[in-house]
Write a structure and sequence with these properties.
Layout lengths: L7 E2 L5 E2 L7 E2 L6 H10 L7 E3 L4 H10 L2 H13 L4 H8 L3 E2 L2 E2 L2 H16 L1
Helix pairs in contact: 1-2, 3-5
Length: 120
Amino acid sequence: MKEICLYSLKNGALIQMEFGSGEMYTNANLTDEIAEKYLAANPEGRVFFSVLPDDWIERVENRKNGNAEKVIEEMTQMLENGETVEDVKAKYKGYMIDGKRMRVKILNAYIKEAQNRLEE
């Protein structure tokens, strides 16, 4: 089953990650990660979306320019607000830090740091 996506394309819209690429997306295969990557590379492409989350600009910027300290602070806040580790993992799956995708090992290390900060 497809995960719920916060982004939705207009009816009949198809986005392509880069010119000539075989990577094409419709609402059937669109994910938050794909939408945010697309918007990070093509901000004017927002015209193809019928639904954007209220914080889409911040989400795209974080994906483009995220830094470790900010991510750990956000994770700490999420855990403090009662969200589970699985919720945090779901939000940051595929997240970009300094232009590179955050790997599972790094994600787990950041979550552990966020948990340590909560215990202090």
